[in-house]
Amino acid sequence: MNITDDTKKKMQQAIEHLKTEYRSLRTNRVNPSMLDEVKVEVYGSDMSIKALGTLTVQDRQLIVTPFDPSTASLIAKAVQASQLNLNAIAEGGTVRIPVPPLNQELRKDIAKMAKQKTESAKIAVREIRRKMNELVKKQKTDGQIAEDEMKKLEKKIQDLTDEHCKILDGLFTEKEKEILTI
């Protein structure tokens, strides 16, 4: 695989990772993926809620039906301990998680979290650029490529970096709009 394809692939992975991170942020819609980042300590290890039961949306609440009903209280505790500010209620063999509408202050906080995640993704893209530029320079010093080829590759890598940073900015703008919309 050549350097530009490798660079593009790695930068695309950074974008996909950001999209996954965005799914865990609360928006005005109730979404089961809000609980993707919540880990429950059960059976001696940390497990995701999806691995422990089924998630459904009913009105403005999430319903978790654990495969093992004895884990319901552990799931409720894990949700309450998370940074989602949700209050889970264990009832019999299920867990109800009412999701109240977001107020403006909470929306702004979530938008800030989205901005931080976007900046982390941009840093990852720039780190990929740095590593690839080092690889190109190493190939030049080893005599594998000529000076003009090195300059062309560095320019292509920079163009890819700029392109992917614009994509990240666009994703953030879209997500911020979704978060701040009432």
Task: Please explain how this structure is put together.
Helices cover 59% and strands 15% of the residues. The chain is an alpha+beta fold. The chain folds into 2 domains: 99 residues, Orthogonal Bundle (Topoisomerase I, Chain A, domain 4); 67 residues, Gyrase A, domain 2, CATH 3.30.1360.40. The radius of gyration is 22 Å and the shape is elongated.
The CATH topology of the largest domain is given as Topoisomerase I, Chain A, domain 4
Number of distinct beta strands:
6
Helix content: 55-70%
- Domains, number: 2
The spatial strand order of the largest sheet comes to: 3-4-6-5
Q: If you compute it from the alpha carbons, what radius of gyration comes out, rounded to the nearest whole angstrom? A: 22 Å
Mean pLDDT: 89
The biggest beta sheet reads: 4 strands, antiparallel
Specify the CATH architecture of the largest domain.
Answer: Orthogonal Bundle
3D shape:
elongated
Q: What portion of the residues fall into strands of 2 or more residues?
A: 15-25%
Contiguous low-pLDDT stretches (5 residues minimum) are none
Distance between the termini: 46 Å
Q: By helix and strand content, what is the structural category?
A: alpha+beta
Order of helices and strands: HEEHEEHEEHH
Structure annotation, total helices: 5
Q: Specify the CATH class of the largest domain.
A: Mainly Alpha
Supply the CATH superfamily name of the largest domain: Ribosome-recycling factor
